[in-house]
Amino acid sequence: MKKIVILSNHHAYTYNFRREIIQKLIDKNFQVYVVQPYGEKVELLRNMGCHCINLPLDRRGTNPIKDLKLLIEYFKIIKNIGPDVVITYTVKPNIYGGLACRMLNTPHLPNITGLGSAVEKKSFMQKIMLLLHRVSLKKSNCIMFQNKENKNLFEKKNIGSRRRRLIPGSGVNTDYFSYIEYPEEKKIEFVFISRIMREKGIDEYLEVAEEITAKYPMTKFHVCGFCEENYENKLTELEKRGIITYHGMVSDVRAILTTTHCTIHPTYYPEGMSNVLLESAASGRPIITTDRSGCREIVEDGVNGYIVKTNNSKDLAEKIERFLEHSHNQKKQMGLMAREKVKKEFDRDIVIEAYYEEIMNI
């Protein structure tokens, strides 16, 4: 049997966004090994037929000793398994998994899911990160990009010159995220679904939630996600005042989308392609998001949602007010248009076929 190794940094991301390609590979009689930190979704991957290997990693840390240990562990695992192809996702698996593949002359398919803040602006750290990508991905068979901005940067910097391919993010399973009936309008409810951190636009969202609820009492704002930065006290205080409802980490966002009318994602984090927006749109919800690569591609401004300026609470508030001015049927139609767009352009089957084609090429 042919062997595939997948290097990932989180069990939930692997299961939620990669399970369809994993299932296809298993159905085609590949042995699939998933290397990632253990968590609750690992058992689901095992039930699918995956071989799971526990390898903790610090997703956001910059400790060179820990990163060297990660490289050594990847090298040992890949050498021991002897895979026909290694697929990697996110920065550290791409870099250190890519280096291990290069040293072992193993075919490699990295996925640029976003480059992070360190690559966003010109700095010494940007030079280091680009150098690491250039060295680690030099022999990669095909680099998968989730947005044009990242692809253009790699082309400009001559990183990974063998083959580069643009795919529609992780795609979205439009059967799993099927249309959810648009709710009635006793209250107009908005939701923020993301890791709670400054760069995801949580400050702008909370500021606008306070402003809009004061001006429009028949509105309600939800926050879903775990706090990656210190926002617990602020969220608790705003919840006590009735400004927001904080749900913490939600295992199935479809439950919250059932009662909400619009998803707001005011991020200025360097996204690959926003899964939050894809899932919301697939469920028939209008979306309001920033004019950022990985977000703007999903929105046709004024048709299925609105695009706002980054770091701009005033513009965000104006777009929310514009949304509130629409009739119930107009809002519902925006949601239907959102679903139509992602079905046509971002269905996960497109991503699955792209990966399978590249694997077969190898």
Short description:
The chain is of the alpha/beta class and 362 residues long.
Would you give an account of this structure?
- This is Glycosyltransferase family 4 protein.
- It holds the Pfam family Glycos_transf_1.
- The protein is α/β, with parallel strands linked by helices and 362 residues long.
- The protein has 2 domains: 3-171 and 348-361, Glycogen Phosphorylase B (Rossmann fold, 3-Layer(aba) Sandwich); 188-345, Rossmann fold.
- 44% of the residues lie in helices and 17% in strands.
- It has 13 helices and 13 strands.
- It has a 7-stranded parallel β-sheet, sandwiched between helices.
- α5 links the parallel β5 (108-112) and β6 (143-145).
- It is globular and about 60 Å long.
- The two termini are 15 Å apart.
Record the SSE blueprint.
Elements: E1 3-7, H1 11-27, E2 31-36, H2 42-48, E3 51-54, H3 64-81, E4 85-89, H4 91-104, E5 108-112, H5 124-136, E6 143-145, H6 148-156, E7 164-166, E8 188-193, H7 202-215, E9 219-224, H8 232-240, E10 244-248, H9 253-257, E11 262-265, H10 275-282, E12 287-290, E13 305-308, H11 313-325, H12 328-345, H13 348-361
Parallel strand pairs: 1-2, 1-4, 2-3, 4-5, 5-6, 6-7, 8-9, 8-11, 9-10, 11-12, 12-13
Domain Glycosyl transferase family: 184-339
Domain Glycosyltransferase subfamily 4-like N-terminal: 4-147
Organism: Salinicoccus siamensis
List the keywords:
single chain; Rossmann fold; 6-stranded parallel β-sheet; 7-stranded parallel β-sheet; 2 domains; 44% helix; globular; alpha/beta; 362 residues
Order of helices and strands: EHEHEHEHEHEHEEHEHEHEHEEHHH
User: How many independent structural domains?
Assistant: 2
Structural class, by secondary structure, is: alpha/beta
Residue share in helices? 40-55%
Q: How are strands sequenced across the largest beta sheet?
A: 3-2-1-4-5-6-7
> How many E strands?
13
Query: What's the CATH H-level homologous superfamily of the largest domain?
Result: Glycogen Phosphorylase B
**CATH topology tier name of the largest domain:** Rossmann fold
Q: Approximately how much beta-strand content do the residues carry?
A: 15-25%
- Oligomeric state of the chains in view: single chain
CATH top level label of the largest domain: Alpha Beta
Largest sheet: 7 strands, parallel
- Rg for CA atoms: 21 Å
CATH architecture of the largest domain: 3-Layer(aba) Sandwich
Task: Let me know the average pLDDT.
Answer: 95
Low-confidence stretches: none
**Termini gap:** 15 Å
Shape verdict: globular
Q: What's the number of helices?
A: 13
Pfam families: Glyco_trans_4_2, Glycos_transf_1
Domain Glycosyl transferase family: 184-339
Protein name: Glycosyltransferase family 4 protein
Domain Glycosyltransferase subfamily 4-like N-terminal: 4-147
